[in-house]
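User: Predict the structure for this protein chain, please.
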Amino acid sequence: MLAYRTMWSAIMASLLLLLAASSAAPADALSAPAAGLGADHGLSKRSLFDPSCSGVFDRQLLRRLRRVCDDCFNVFREPNVAIDCRENCYNNEVFRQCMAYVVPANLHDEHRQAVQMVGK
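Assistant: Here is the predicted structure, written as structure tokens:
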């Protein structure tokens, strides 16, 4: 019984040391994927999307608009389509052409309203 208690105490002490060491680690050591982005890039919720989108931050709307550009890129396989489609927070001619090509006509107004909401 004494051996069991000694072993249990050693395991618990090891776990506490491990926990203390991980909480004392520097913040940039814990966020290794973000380290490759550069020191001047802060990761906020909005920074994951186009910074020109200064209107309503709605993940669902932004995801829907991004999907139009992604689908358009998958159809045409032109790198400029992927980049230009997102310019000016989706308020551009390339996005409108992509929308006309990949979005059913009955959803065009819904997408136009989404562009207005996120781009204000």
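The longest helix spans residues 2-23.
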